[in-house]
Amino acid sequence: MRASPQCWLTDMDGVLVREEHALPGAAEFLQRLVDKDRPFLVLTNNSIFTPRDLSARLLRSGLTVPESSIWTSALATAAFLSDQLPGGSAYVIGEAGLTTALHAVGYTLTDIEPDFVVLGETRTYSFTAITTAIRLILGGARFIATNPDATGPSAEGPLPATGSVAAMITKATGRDPYFVGKPNPMMFRSALNRIEAHSENTVMIGDRMDTDVVAGIEAGLETVLVLTGSTTVEDVERYPFRPSRVLPSIAEVIDLV
């Protein structure tokens, strides 16, 4: 661990919460960041909800995170598109988290000759909407997706997610999307810009080697893997890269702040 990290990025699910319940140490960790006046962002590949929605959901779990301290794949996607083509247009498959983010950067949402087709997370994927997306991509729209996650969690078990639907569209069009969210380090770089942080003094905490840790390494950050989510100790040995630290939970990270 580099001396005196000043800024912190942390994944949400599997690090701070699991199935909408706060994990032990999460509240104390967030409070330590506030007490030490450390800039931080909570990151999530979930593009369904707006930061305001997520802040309210976290509060119900007992965690206080202002909406300004939440960075989603939807926000990262909007920032990327605004940089690529300011004031452009997009046909969107997704929920309020994505449409709100695109509106906020001045994008027009349309199904008539859009510059981009943007695929995000939704619990109600429509065959009609997917068909429209395929035809627009074949007509020249560029294909963007918020994140590559193939499945998402639910109380009943895994659900098909953005990556799965993107694969179907790719099969029909022959066009691969550009994924903005984790493990693309683009999401971390845009997060660093958001809090005016530098990679040299920023730490990323995550529960997955294949998204959080690899993206953190590629973005030049120190990385902490906690074992309260997807990755186990045994899993770590399967990867050719290593996090800076492997800790049991977020509770053990508190003293590093």
Helix content: 25-40%
Tell me the distance between the termini: 11 Å
Give the helix tally.
9
Low-confidence stretches: none
Number of DSSP E strands: 15
Q: Output the helix-strand order.
A: EEEHEHEHEHEEHEEEHEHEHEHE
Oligomer: single chain
- Summing up helix and strand content along with how strands pair, one would put the structural category as alpha/beta
- What's the arrangement of strands in the largest beta sheet? 5-4-1-13-14-15
> How much strand content do the residues show?
15-25%
**Average of per-residue pLDDT values:** 94
Largest sheet: 6 strands, parallel
Estimate the global geometry from the Cα principal axes. Answer: globular
What is the gyration radius calculated from CA atoms?
18 Å
Protein name: Haloacid dehalogenase
Active site: 11 (nucleophile), 13 (proton donor)
Binding site for substrate: 182
GO molecular function: metal ion binding; phosphatase activity
